[in-house]
Structures are given as structure tokens and as C-alpha cells.
Design a protein that fits this description.
The complex is a heterodimer of chains A (65) and B (543).
Chain A (H helix, E strand, L loop, with lengths): L11 H11 L5 H19 L2 H14 L3
Chain B lengths: L7 E4 L15 E8 L3 H12 L4 E4 L4 E3 L6 E3 H9 L3 H7 L1 E2 L2 E6 L2 E7 L11 E3 L2 H17 L4 E4 L3 E7 L4 E7 L2 E12 L6 H5 L4 E2 L5 E9 L7 E6 L9 E6 L4 E7 L6 H4 L2 H12 L6 E10 L2 E3 L3 E2 L2 E3 L5 E2 L7 H20 L7 H27 L4 H14 L29 E2 L30 E6 L6 E4 L2 E8 L8 H6 L6 E5 L5 E5 L4 H11 L7
Parallel strand pairs in B: 2-3, 2-13, 3-10, 7-16, 13-22, 24-29, 25-27
Antiparallel strand pairs in B: 1-4, 5-9, 6-9, 7-8, 11-12, 12-13, 14-20, 15-18, 15-19, 16-17, 17-18, 20-23, 21-22, 25-28, 26-27, 28-29
Helix pairs in contact in B: 1-4, 1-8, 2-3, 8-9
The chains are: A mainly alpha (65), B alpha+beta (543).
The complex binds flavin-adenine dinucleotide (FAD).
Chain lengths: 65, 543
């Protein structure tokens, strides 16, 4: 399995709004904890170490300026 | 000048004068083992049972008081059983299967080790180390009575060595003064601070992890179940980063507090301070007696090479791990299991000395696996950064509600035997459909055989056949492999077939004396067996 980096969501705006909404009312610390739980849940859903590594790689390189 | 560094639990080998002390020239011994901890005694036992004369030197007269190791793993018990001392360990040890994990004041989840059927030994027993060592020494005594050429010299301290091309000279101190002996081979089992290592100017490499633990063995009649309880960030007052409660025999419980590297040891060791911690944990109303307590600091590292010419290192002298996972003594016993038969073949001239280099490479692989596991556990238990702590706590929060997160929870990955994947002695893996767990390099899993166990039948080199033909024995260049003929039908439970056949209809395994798989095929092929047998003994393949 390889990581999908092409558009894959029918309703990108909706998903994005859900994500931001989920953080509403949380302190910064709570948001960080929330994100950590979310990443773990999604990592398990991905279910494959290699694909997850590709995701880590993509997340890392996109942040480089 | 020969003072005890610790008090004895069992005085098992009192000092006695020996002829070597009066010899004019140093008496030469085929094998000398220095250090009578669990690993040294085991090494002497393994070699002695092969009929190889072995001399063990220890600077005390018996087994130390400190309880230290308590968790002894299945593979250790299987190896000890091969030496004839598995039964008393199982009898004295406490068997447990249930573990509970807590984070601060809430229970995160519980787990059951769910023992697999068809094994003679459980995944673990809890047995205080002094008993483990005593059972080994008692087995040595029994073997000696049956003629095994083992000698244990108590209060004989190794003070200096001189490594020569084909032997080692040893300066030994006794209560009656020094003497000198020579050894063709020297096995260093003198513990974590190994004086021998220092005498040879050798040191450790690798990642160093440091932490200290306050450890107490307490006797109480209170009703705590036979379970392993582990706390992350325990809620009791000043109990440190983690805490473990574990049952031992005789109403004794082990309590470990991980109290950090920078502690005032003398202060922490005061009985009132230990009691304050224990009271906070157990509740003031619980009555207990402190049997033993100590502060330990741990490091995580290994020697680069376990063989240096005629000197071989094993156990804590060669490698150390943090206590998470109970891998110290357990891996030391696997060292001996690996070294014994190789040294035996070399001493008999049936294998080249270079076979001993594979002792180092295989057991370095084992040590690396242990260090990796215990480093990962340590990083989970004591996160090194804010973000690491964030994820750790996220795992614990999720684990309370969702099964998927529980495998992330790492309170120590309990010792499993090492598989020598990629090992230099491994031969063909030519059994299509064969189970992965019995691939070359793996230790043979036990299986029931209607009125006995498979591992009881494996010793020396064995050609294990399942529903396959083979001659009764094959001798190749002085080394014999004898056949053990089995059929899937020998085990109605199906475990034997599941563990050794998988989807194959028949199988032929070449099994090493340490019960690790050397190679496997679907049917017997004489040329293939001979080549694998040579290869497993470290010999070149025939031209
Ligand atoms: C608190 C604690 C808990 C542990 N729990 C576990 C566990 O649950 N499971 C597990 O597998 N492991 C555990 N371990 C690790 C385990 O105790 C060690 O790995 C084990 O004791 C190592 O055995 P050894 O024979 O290599 O060394 P040691 O037991 O240290 O023995 C070395 C011996 O060499 C002798 N010696 C030293 N210098 C000389 C000299 N110059 N001349 C002659 N003799 C000498 C010493 O007196 C000693 O008898 C634990 C350790 C600690 C401290």
C-alpha cells in the first residue's frame, strides 16, 4: 500500500471544517493532546508502517522552507 | 583484602584449599569461568554436562542475598530443563498471567498473557534470583556426583590476567594468599562491573541510559492477587516515574519505584523513607515486613565484541539492559545456551575456533534486540521530551477506551527468545508453506507428543523429521546428527503440525544443540543435510 497524496475526499471543505470545529473551546494544551490522539487513531486506521512512514516523510518535507 | 561485597543468601561453595595453590608451575585448565552468578554457574553446568572439565572461580562463598531478578522466562526454563533443573524452578516459582496497567489513579486496561497450549513451561515464573542460582548449583552438585568434571572454588578472586596467543594466565587471590593458573579458554561472567573487562582494557559501546530504582521485597499477608501491576506516573506520594508490584513465592512481593537518576541514595535508603513510600502506595493499614531493599542504577549498553581471542564474555559482563522486560538474566542464560555447544565442539577439535565468533555475532544480535526493546520501553515510561510525553499520555488515554491503542502501551516488553535472523550459521529455508516461527535461526517451540514434550527429545544435533524418511543418523566430519522421527499424528492437538509443518505435507529440520533451527526442507536430502551440518559448525562448505 502506498500513501495517497492526490485529492481523495469528496467534501474537503466539510472535513476541514469538522477538524477546526473539533478544536473549538480547547486550550492550546488540550488541542495538542487532541491532535496526538487523532494521529494515533488514524495511524492505526492506516494499518501499515511503511505507509505511515511515507506520511511522516510528506509531513516533514512539506514544512521545510 | 578479600572482603565480601555482599551478604550471602546461601553459602554453597565454602573456600577450600586446592592442589593448584601448591603447584610450582601454573596448572593449566581447558576452561575457567570467572564469576558464579547465574550465568557463570550455568556455563559451568553446560560444559560439565558435556564432559568438559571446567573450573569456576567466584570471589564469594555462595549466592548473594540481593533478590534482583524475579521474572524468569519460558525459554530460560526450557534451557534449564535441558540441564535437568527446570522442575524445581517451576515448582518454587509463582505463575502469573494477568497484568494490570494504571496511569496515575485510574486503571487503563488489563491483559492476560493467554498461555499457548502444548508447552511444558509457562511464559514466566516469578522466582527470586537466589533460588534460581541455588537450583543451578544443586544441579552442579548432582552432576558432579554423576562424574561431571566441574569444580567450583569459592573465595577465589581473579585479580589479574595475561592473555596469550593460545591461553590465558590468571592471578587468583584466596584467603590463604595468591596463586596462578592457566586456562585454554576463559569465560568472563563476572557481572556488570566486570573486573575482567577492565583488566583487558575493554569497554562498552552504544547508547547509555541511566536511571535509578528503589527496589523493595516485602512480606505481607494482605490479599493482593497474583498479578503484575504497573503504574505510569503513580499517584502515591513521591513514587517516581513508574512503579511495579509483583508477586514472588512465600508471601513476598516485589515493589519497584523508578525514582530518577539524581537522588540522594543514602537518604532514600533510610527505612523510614522506604516505609513512607510503601505506606503511601499500599495504604497505611497494610502490615508488611521489608525483607530486602536496595537502590539500583541501570545502564543500557553492550561490548562491541563478546570474544577477545581466548576470552569470551557472557551475561551482564557483556551487556546490560534496563529492568523493563526482565531481560538481564534471561538473556545471559541464552548466551550460555549459545556458547556451550560451540565451545564444546572447538575443544574437541570438531569445529574451527572461528565458530566462537558466531557466538559473539549471534549474541550481539540478541543483546541489540534487548537493548532496543528496553530503550523503547524506557522512552515510553520516562518520555524524554514534551511531545514524547504528549503522545505517551494520548496512548494511555486511548487505551482505556479502545483496544487498538493497547499494543502501544509499553511497560516493558517481556523477554522472548532471540531469533538469529540472518545468522551466519543458518542454512536453507527450503520448506514451502513452513511456519515463520520455526524458520532457520528460531528456537524450536515446544509441542506435546502424547506422553512427553518435543523439547525433551531435542539435544545435540538432531534431524527432526515429520512424516518424512531419513537415516537414523548422519555423521559429517566428526559431528553426528541423530534422527528424531515424528509424525503429525503424534500430537492429536495439532500443535506439532501447526508449529512445524504449516501448509507443508512433510518436513525435515536440522536442529542445533541449543534447539535453534539450522535449516529445513520438505524431504531428506543427504547432500543438503551434510552441507548444513558443516555450515552450522562454522566450517567451509566442501569444495
Ligand atoms: C533489581 C533487579 C531486578 C532484575 N530483574 C530481572 C528479571 O526479572 N529478570 C531477569 O532476567 N533479569 C533481571 N535482572 C538482571 C539480573 O539480575 C542480571 O542480569 C544477572 O544477575 C546477571 O548475571 P551474571 O551471572 O551475568 O552476573 P552477576 O549475577 O552479577 O554475577 C557475577 C558474579 O561474579 C562474581 N565476581 C565479580 N568479580 C569477580 C572476580 N574478580 N573474581 C571472581 N568472581 C567475581 C560476583 O561476586 C558474582 O557472583 C535484574 C537486576 C536487578 C538489579
Amino acid at each position: 500500500m502506498s500513501l495517497t497524496l492526490d485529492p481523495n475526499l469528496a467534501d474537503a471543505d466539510g472535513v476541514y471544517a469538522d477538524l477546526i470545529e473539533a478544536h473549538e473551546g480547547l486550550t492550546e494544551e488540550e488541542s495538542h493532546a487532541f491532535n496526538a490522539r487523532l494521529i494515533l487513531i488514524l495511524a492505526n486506521h492506516v494499518g501499515d508502517r511503511e505507509t505511515f512512514r511515507q506520511a511522516l516523510e510528506a509531513a516533514g518535507s512539506a514544512g521545510k522552507r | 583484602m578479600l572482603d565480601d561485597r555482599y551478604s550471602l543468601a546461601f553459602r554453597l561453595y565454602p573456600y577450600g584449599r586446592c592442589a593448584d595453590q601448591d603447584a610450582i608451575d601454573p596448572v593449566r585448565h581447558p576452561v575457567v569461568v570467572v564469576g558464579g552468578g547465574p550465568v557463570g554457574i550455568a556455563a559451568a553446568l553446560d560444559l560439565g554436562l558435556q564432559g568438559i572439565p571446567v573450573l569456576l572461580l567466584d570471589d564469594h562463598e555462595g549466592v548473594g542475598q540481593g533478590s534482583r531478578a524475579i521474572c524468569f522466562a519460558k525459554r530460560t526454563l526450557e534451557i534449564c530443563d535441558r540441564w535437568g533443573t527446570g522442575a524445581p524452578m517451576l515448582e518454587k516459582g509463582v505463575v502469573w498471567n494477568l497484568g494490570k496497567v494504571f496511569h496515575a489513579d485510574r486503571k487503563v486496561f488489563e491483559f492476560n498473557l493467554l498461555p499457548e497450549e502444548g508447552h511444558k513451561f509457562p511464559a514466566f515464573v516469578n522466582l527470586p534470583q537466589p533460588y534460581f542460582e541455588r537450583f543451578l548449583v544443586e544441579r552442579v552438585r548432582e552432576a558432579q556426583a554423576q562424574g561431571a568434571p566441574i569444580e567450583i572454588r569459592g573465595k577465589n578472586r581473579l585479580d589479574a590476567v595475561e592473555a596469550r596467543e593460545d591461553h590465558v594466565l590468571l592471578d587468583v587471590t584466596t584467603p590463604e594468599g595468591p596463586y596462578r593458573i592457566a586456562a585454554d579458554w576463559l569465560i568472563g561472567c563476572d557481572g556488570a562491573s566486570s573486573p575482567l573487562r577492565r583488566m583487558l582494557g575493554l569497554d562498552f559501546e552504544g547508547r547509555v541510559f541511566q536511571d535509578s530504582f528503589l527496589i523493595a521485597d516485602i512480606r505481607m499477608k494482605a490479599e493482593f492477587p497474583t498479578e503484575r501491576w504497573f503504574w505510569f506516573e503513580p499517584p502515591f506520594k513521591s513514587s517516581g516515574a513508574s512503579c511495579l508490584l509483583h508477586k514472588q513465592p512465600d508471601d513476598v512481593w516485589r515493589v519497584d519505584f523508578q525514582i530518577g537518576w539524581d537522588v540522594d541514595r543514602a537518604e532514600e535508603m533510610k527505612e523510614e523513607n522506604i516505609r513512607a513510600r510503601l505506606d503511601a502506595m499500599l495504604g497505611a493499614e497494610v502490615d508488611y515486613e521489608i525483607v530486602w531493599s536496595s537502590i539500583y542504577t541501570f545502564q543500557c549498553r553492550r561490548m562491541k565484541n563478546f570474544r577477545h581471542g581466548r576470552v569470551l564474555f557472557a551475561g551482564d559482563a557483556a551487556h546490560q539492559v534496563s529492568p523493563f522486560g526482565a531481560r538481564g538474566a534471561n538473556s545471559g542464560i541464552q548466551d550460555v545456551d549459545n556458547l556451550g555447544w560451540k565451545l564444546g565442539l572447538v575443544l574437541r577439535g570438531k569445529a574451527p575456533e572461528t565458530l566462537l565468533d558466531t557466538y559473539s555475532s549471534e549474541r550481539c544480535h540478541g543483546a541489540d534486540e534487548n537493548i532496543l526493546n528496553s530503550t523503547r520501553s524506557t522512552d515510553f515510561i520516562t518520555p524524554k521530551s514534551a511531545v514524547s510525553r504528549l503522545f505517551r499520555n494520548a496512548v494511555l488515554d486511548l487505551a482505556e477506551h479502545h483496544a487498538f491503542a493497547r499494543p502501544f502501551v509499553n511497560s516493558g516488553r517481556l523477554s522472548l527468545p532471540c531469533i538469529y535472523d540472518g545468522g551466519l550459521l543458518n542454512g536453507a529455508d527450503a520448506l514451502p508453506g513452513g511456519p515463520s516461527r520455526t524458520r532457520p535461526g528460531a528456537p524450536c517451540p515446544d509441542a506435546p507428543l502424547g506422553g512427553g514434550q518435543l523439547l525433551e527429545r531435542l539435544g545435540g544435533f538432531v534431524i527432526l523429521t515429520l512424516d518424512a524418511d531419513a537415516p537414523e543418523a548422519v555423521e559429517e566430519d566428526g559431528v553426528t546428527a541423530r534422527r528424531l522421527a515424528l509424525s503429525a499424528a503424534d500430537d492429536p492437538s495439532g500443535a506439532l503440525a501447526a508449529r512445524y509443518l504449516g501448509d507443508a505435507r512433510s518436513a525435515v529440520y536440522l536442529v542445533r544443540p541449543d534447539q535453534h533451527v539450522a535449516a529445513r526442507w520438505e524431504t531428506f536430502d543427504e547432500g543438503a543435510i551434510r552441507a548444513a551440518l558443516r555450515h552450522a559448525c562454522g566450517k567451509e562448505r566442501p569444495a
